[in-house]
Design goal:
Layout lengths: L13 H4 L24 H22 L2 H16 L12 H30 L5 H16 L3 H18 L4 H18 L3 H10 L5 H12 L2 H10 L2 H7 L3 H15 L2 E3 H8 L3 H6 L6 E3 L2 E3 L8
Antiparallel strand pairs: 1-3, 2-3
Length: 300
Protein backbone atom coordinates (compact mmCIF):
# COMPACT_ATOMS: atom_id res chain seq x y z
CA UNK A 1 0.00 0.00 0.00
CA UNK A 2 1.38 3.38 -1.00
CA UNK A 3 1.82 5.89 1.79
CA UNK A 4 0.69 9.53 1.77
CA UNK A 5 2.91 11.68 -0.46
CA UNK A 6 3.56 8.85 -2.86
CA UNK A 7 6.44 7.37 -0.85
CA UNK A 8 7.07 3.66 -1.15
CA UNK A 9 7.45 1.69 2.09
CA UNK A 10 11.07 1.01 3.04
CA UNK A 11 12.34 -2.24 1.60
CA UNK A 12 9.81 -2.38 -1.25
CA UNK A 13 11.48 -3.44 -4.49
CA UNK A 14 14.83 -3.24 -2.64
CA UNK A 15 16.21 -6.22 -4.51
CA UNK A 16 15.60 -4.50 -7.85
CA UNK A 17 17.71 -1.51 -6.81
CA UNK A 18 20.69 -3.50 -5.59
CA UNK A 19 23.57 -4.10 -7.95
CA UNK A 20 25.86 -7.12 -7.70
CA UNK A 21 29.23 -6.27 -6.19
CA UNK A 22 32.00 -6.54 -8.75
CA UNK A 23 35.01 -8.32 -7.29
CA UNK A 24 38.40 -7.99 -8.94
CA UNK A 25 39.40 -11.54 -9.97
CA UNK A 26 42.91 -10.90 -8.64
CA UNK A 27 41.55 -9.77 -5.27
CA UNK A 28 39.13 -12.68 -4.90
CA UNK A 29 41.56 -14.70 -2.80
CA UNK A 30 43.58 -13.79 0.26
CA UNK A 31 47.09 -14.78 1.21
CA UNK A 32 47.46 -18.47 2.12
CA UNK A 33 49.81 -17.38 4.92
CA UNK A 34 46.83 -15.51 6.40
CA UNK A 35 44.52 -18.52 6.30
CA UNK A 36 43.27 -18.63 2.69
CA UNK A 37 42.61 -22.29 1.82
CA UNK A 38 40.85 -22.12 -1.55
CA UNK A 39 44.08 -21.58 -3.48
CA UNK A 40 45.51 -24.89 -2.29
CA UNK A 41 43.59 -26.69 -5.04
CA UNK A 42 45.72 -27.36 -8.13
CA UNK A 43 42.85 -26.53 -10.49
CA UNK A 44 42.11 -23.27 -8.67
CA UNK A 45 45.78 -22.32 -8.87
CA UNK A 46 45.83 -22.85 -12.63
CA UNK A 47 42.62 -20.87 -13.13
CA UNK A 48 43.97 -18.04 -11.00
CA UNK A 49 47.22 -18.00 -12.97
CA UNK A 50 45.24 -17.68 -16.21
CA UNK A 51 43.53 -14.59 -14.78
CA UNK A 52 46.91 -13.13 -13.80
CA UNK A 53 48.27 -13.74 -17.30
CA UNK A 54 45.20 -12.11 -18.86
CA UNK A 55 45.60 -9.03 -16.66
CA UNK A 56 49.28 -8.78 -17.53
CA UNK A 57 48.57 -8.99 -21.26
CA UNK A 58 45.95 -6.26 -20.86
CA UNK A 59 48.50 -4.16 -18.97
CA UNK A 60 51.05 -4.59 -21.78
CA UNK A 61 48.45 -3.68 -24.41
CA UNK A 62 47.44 -0.57 -22.46
CA UNK A 63 51.06 0.53 -22.13
CA UNK A 64 51.46 0.47 -25.92
CA UNK A 65 54.96 0.03 -27.32
CA UNK A 66 58.05 -1.21 -25.49
CA UNK A 67 59.03 2.32 -24.45
CA UNK A 68 55.67 2.83 -22.79
CA UNK A 69 55.99 -0.51 -21.03
CA UNK A 70 59.46 0.37 -19.74
CA UNK A 71 58.12 3.68 -18.40
CA UNK A 72 55.43 1.85 -16.45
CA UNK A 73 57.96 -0.50 -14.90
CA UNK A 74 60.29 2.38 -14.09
CA UNK A 75 57.43 4.34 -12.52
CA UNK A 76 56.60 1.44 -10.20
CA UNK A 77 60.29 1.11 -9.29
CA UNK A 78 60.51 4.80 -8.41
CA UNK A 79 57.37 4.58 -6.27
CA UNK A 80 58.73 1.60 -4.35
CA UNK A 81 61.89 3.58 -3.55
CA UNK A 82 60.01 6.75 -2.60
CA UNK A 83 57.16 5.83 -0.29
CA UNK A 84 56.15 9.42 0.39
CA UNK A 85 55.74 11.83 -2.52
CA UNK A 86 54.99 15.52 -1.88
CA UNK A 87 51.77 16.90 -3.27
CA UNK A 88 52.19 18.71 -6.61
CA UNK A 89 52.02 22.49 -6.54
CA UNK A 90 50.14 22.60 -9.84
CA UNK A 91 47.07 20.72 -10.97
CA UNK A 92 48.18 17.70 -13.08
CA UNK A 93 46.60 16.58 -16.31
CA UNK A 94 43.64 14.56 -15.04
CA UNK A 95 43.44 12.13 -17.96
CA UNK A 96 47.14 11.30 -17.99
CA UNK A 97 47.38 11.02 -14.22
CA UNK A 98 44.32 8.77 -13.99
CA UNK A 99 45.60 6.47 -16.74
CA UNK A 100 49.04 6.20 -15.14
CA UNK A 101 47.49 5.54 -11.73
CA UNK A 102 45.33 2.73 -13.13
CA UNK A 103 48.30 1.12 -14.90
CA UNK A 104 50.42 1.40 -11.76
CA UNK A 105 47.65 -0.13 -9.67
CA UNK A 106 47.24 -2.99 -12.17
CA UNK A 107 50.94 -3.85 -11.97
CA UNK A 108 50.91 -3.76 -8.17
CA UNK A 109 47.83 -6.01 -8.14
CA UNK A 110 49.53 -8.46 -10.51
CA UNK A 111 52.57 -8.66 -8.25
CA UNK A 112 50.36 -9.21 -5.19
CA UNK A 113 48.36 -11.89 -7.01
CA UNK A 114 51.59 -13.66 -7.91
CA UNK A 115 52.60 -13.56 -4.26
CA UNK A 116 49.33 -15.26 -3.32
CA UNK A 117 49.87 -17.91 -5.96
CA UNK A 118 53.47 -18.51 -4.91
CA UNK A 119 52.39 -18.93 -1.29
CA UNK A 120 49.73 -21.42 -2.42
CA UNK A 121 52.32 -23.42 -4.36
CA UNK A 122 54.59 -23.50 -1.31
CA UNK A 123 51.73 -24.52 1.01
CA UNK A 124 50.54 -27.27 -1.34
CA UNK A 125 54.14 -28.46 -1.90
CA UNK A 126 53.63 -28.39 -5.63
CA UNK A 127 56.80 -29.02 -7.65
CA UNK A 128 56.01 -29.51 -11.31
CA UNK A 129 56.05 -27.69 -14.65
CA UNK A 130 53.27 -25.37 -13.50
CA UNK A 131 55.15 -24.34 -10.36
CA UNK A 132 58.25 -23.67 -12.44
CA UNK A 133 56.26 -21.57 -14.91
CA UNK A 134 54.68 -19.47 -12.15
CA UNK A 135 58.00 -18.84 -10.43
CA UNK A 136 59.77 -17.93 -13.66
CA UNK A 137 57.00 -15.47 -14.50
CA UNK A 138 57.15 -13.94 -11.01
CA UNK A 139 60.93 -13.63 -11.20
CA UNK A 140 60.94 -11.96 -14.61
CA UNK A 141 58.12 -9.56 -13.77
CA UNK A 142 59.63 -8.78 -10.37
CA UNK A 143 62.95 -7.92 -12.01
CA UNK A 144 61.37 -5.65 -14.61
CA UNK A 145 59.49 -3.91 -11.78
CA UNK A 146 62.69 -3.65 -9.69
CA UNK A 147 60.76 -5.46 -6.95
CA UNK A 148 63.44 -7.49 -5.19
CA UNK A 149 60.81 -8.44 -2.60
CA UNK A 150 59.21 -10.42 -5.44
CA UNK A 151 62.08 -11.85 -7.44
CA UNK A 152 64.73 -12.60 -4.79
CA UNK A 153 62.72 -15.04 -2.61
CA UNK A 154 61.28 -16.56 -5.79
CA UNK A 155 64.81 -17.16 -7.12
CA UNK A 156 65.88 -18.87 -3.91
CA UNK A 157 62.80 -21.11 -3.74
CA UNK A 158 63.03 -22.08 -7.39
CA UNK A 159 66.70 -23.03 -7.09
CA UNK A 160 66.67 -24.63 -3.65
CA UNK A 161 63.27 -26.35 -3.53
CA UNK A 162 61.68 -26.78 -6.95
CA UNK A 163 64.81 -27.46 -9.02
CA UNK A 164 66.10 -30.39 -6.90
CA UNK A 165 62.68 -32.08 -7.14
CA UNK A 166 61.80 -31.07 -10.71
CA UNK A 167 64.83 -30.11 -12.75
CA UNK A 168 64.91 -26.85 -14.64
CA UNK A 169 66.15 -26.99 -18.21
CA UNK A 170 69.78 -25.99 -18.72
CA UNK A 171 68.66 -22.71 -20.30
CA UNK A 172 66.30 -21.90 -17.41
CA UNK A 173 68.96 -22.77 -14.84
CA UNK A 174 71.55 -20.51 -16.47
CA UNK A 175 68.98 -17.72 -16.63
CA UNK A 176 67.94 -17.77 -12.98
CA UNK A 177 71.47 -18.32 -11.67
CA UNK A 178 72.58 -15.34 -13.74
CA UNK A 179 69.90 -13.22 -12.08
CA UNK A 180 70.93 -14.40 -8.62
CA UNK A 181 74.61 -13.66 -9.26
CA UNK A 182 73.81 -10.20 -10.61
CA UNK A 183 71.53 -9.48 -7.67
CA UNK A 184 74.32 -10.32 -5.22
CA UNK A 185 76.80 -8.14 -7.08
CA UNK A 186 74.62 -5.19 -8.11
CA UNK A 187 71.86 -4.80 -5.54
CA UNK A 188 73.55 -6.24 -2.45
CA UNK A 189 77.07 -5.11 -3.40
CA UNK A 190 78.50 -8.48 -2.36
CA UNK A 191 81.02 -9.51 -5.00
CA UNK A 192 82.35 -12.36 -2.86
CA UNK A 193 78.91 -13.96 -2.71
CA UNK A 194 78.39 -13.32 -6.42
CA UNK A 195 81.55 -15.23 -7.31
CA UNK A 196 80.64 -17.99 -4.83
CA UNK A 197 77.22 -18.45 -6.45
CA UNK A 198 78.76 -18.34 -9.92
CA UNK A 199 81.14 -21.16 -9.03
CA UNK A 200 78.57 -23.17 -7.07
CA UNK A 201 76.12 -23.35 -9.97
CA UNK A 202 78.87 -23.42 -12.63
CA UNK A 203 77.47 -20.42 -14.41
CA UNK A 204 78.96 -19.84 -17.85
CA UNK A 205 77.79 -16.44 -19.00
CA UNK A 206 80.43 -14.10 -20.48
CA UNK A 207 78.22 -11.05 -19.98
CA UNK A 208 77.68 -11.76 -16.29
CA UNK A 209 81.43 -12.30 -15.96
CA UNK A 210 82.01 -8.92 -17.61
CA UNK A 211 79.65 -7.25 -15.14
CA UNK A 212 81.58 -8.73 -12.23
CA UNK A 213 84.88 -7.54 -13.73
CA UNK A 214 83.52 -4.04 -14.27
CA UNK A 215 82.32 -3.83 -10.67
CA UNK A 216 85.55 -5.19 -9.21
CA UNK A 217 87.60 -2.64 -11.18
CA UNK A 218 85.14 0.28 -11.11
CA UNK A 219 85.39 0.15 -14.91
CA UNK A 220 82.70 2.54 -16.16
CA UNK A 221 83.53 2.03 -19.85
CA UNK A 222 83.20 -1.76 -19.64
CA UNK A 223 80.07 -1.38 -17.51
CA UNK A 224 78.29 0.74 -20.10
CA UNK A 225 79.40 -1.56 -22.91
CA UNK A 226 77.93 -4.59 -21.15
CA UNK A 227 74.82 -2.65 -20.12
CA UNK A 228 74.02 -2.03 -23.78
CA UNK A 229 74.51 -5.69 -24.74
CA UNK A 230 72.47 -7.54 -22.09
CA UNK A 231 68.73 -8.26 -22.16
CA UNK A 232 66.20 -6.11 -20.34
CA UNK A 233 66.05 -8.28 -17.22
CA UNK A 234 69.79 -8.27 -16.60
CA UNK A 235 69.94 -4.56 -17.42
CA UNK A 236 67.27 -3.85 -14.80
CA UNK A 237 69.28 -5.64 -12.10
CA UNK A 238 72.41 -3.76 -13.21
CA UNK A 239 70.54 -0.51 -12.60
CA UNK A 240 70.92 -1.08 -8.85
CA UNK A 241 74.71 -0.62 -9.11
CA UNK A 242 74.80 2.13 -11.72
CA UNK A 243 74.75 5.05 -9.23
CA UNK A 244 77.86 3.60 -7.57
CA UNK A 245 79.74 3.36 -10.89
CA UNK A 246 78.57 6.80 -12.00
CA UNK A 247 79.72 8.29 -8.71
CA UNK A 248 83.16 6.80 -9.34
CA UNK A 249 83.44 8.32 -12.82
CA UNK A 250 82.32 11.71 -11.50
CA UNK A 251 85.05 11.59 -8.87
CA UNK A 252 87.51 10.76 -11.65
CA UNK A 253 86.36 13.85 -13.56
CA UNK A 254 86.78 15.91 -10.40
CA UNK A 255 90.37 14.76 -9.95
CA UNK A 256 91.41 14.94 -13.61
CA UNK A 257 89.83 18.02 -15.19
CA UNK A 258 89.58 21.73 -14.53
CA UNK A 259 86.76 22.07 -17.06
CA UNK A 260 85.11 20.09 -19.85
CA UNK A 261 82.42 20.73 -22.40
CA UNK A 262 78.90 20.01 -21.26
CA UNK A 263 78.35 17.68 -24.23
CA UNK A 264 81.44 15.63 -23.39
CA UNK A 265 80.44 15.30 -19.74
CA UNK A 266 76.89 14.24 -20.57
CA UNK A 267 78.11 11.73 -23.16
CA UNK A 268 80.62 10.09 -20.83
CA UNK A 269 78.31 9.91 -17.80
CA UNK A 270 75.11 9.09 -19.74
CA UNK A 271 73.36 11.78 -17.70
CA UNK A 272 72.00 15.20 -18.56
CA UNK A 273 73.45 18.26 -16.84
CA UNK A 274 70.25 18.74 -14.85
CA UNK A 275 70.43 15.12 -13.62
CA UNK A 276 74.03 15.59 -12.52
CA UNK A 277 73.11 18.71 -10.56
CA UNK A 278 69.79 17.58 -9.09
CA UNK A 279 70.37 13.87 -8.53
CA UNK A 280 74.13 13.63 -8.09
CA UNK A 281 74.70 17.12 -6.64
CA UNK A 282 78.01 17.67 -8.42
CA UNK A 283 78.32 21.30 -7.32
CA UNK A 284 80.05 22.34 -10.56
CA UNK A 285 79.30 25.47 -12.59
CA UNK A 286 78.04 25.74 -16.16
CA UNK A 287 79.56 28.64 -18.10
CA UNK A 288 78.69 29.10 -21.79
CA UNK A 289 78.54 25.40 -22.57
CA UNK A 290 81.55 24.47 -20.46
CA UNK A 291 81.40 22.83 -17.07
CA UNK A 292 83.85 24.39 -14.63
CA UNK A 293 84.94 21.61 -12.28
CA UNK A 294 87.79 23.30 -10.44
CA UNK A 295 89.20 26.80 -10.37
CA UNK A 296 92.88 27.54 -9.96
CA UNK A 297 93.38 29.84 -7.02
CA UNK A 298 95.57 32.83 -7.87
CA UNK A 299 98.68 33.52 -5.84
CA UNK A 300 98.33 36.23 -3.23
Amino acid sequence: MQRRGGRVPSGHHLSSRLRPVEVDPLAEYGLPSKGEKRLLSAKTQETFYSKIAERYLAFCTEAGDSDGLQKQFARLAIDSNNKSVPAPTTRPNTTTTTTERIQKTDLSQILMALRKLREAIVASKRRDDFATQVYLFAIRLGILSSSHETYHPALLYLLKVIHPAHNLSSVELQEVVGYLVLDAACRRSDLAEAYTLRNKYRLKDPKVDAVLRALSRDDWVLWRKVRRSVDGHKARIMDFAEPQLRSHILKAFGRSYLSVSREFLETQTFSSWSELVDRHQVGWELDNGRVVIRKIQGRS
